[in-house]
Amino acid sequence: MYQPYFQQPFLYFTHMEVTQKISMIFTILFYIYSHHEPKGIIPILMRGLTTSHPFCNQAGEGRWGTDELAFNEVLAKRSYKQLRATFQAYQTLIGKDIEEAIEAETSGDLQKAYLTLVRCARDQEGYFAERLYKSMKGVGTDEETLIHIFVTRAEVDLQGIKAKFQEKYQKSLSDMVRSDTSGDFRKLLVALLH
Question: Which among 156, 160, 162 has a CA at the least distance from the CA of 189?
Answer without folding.
Answer: 162
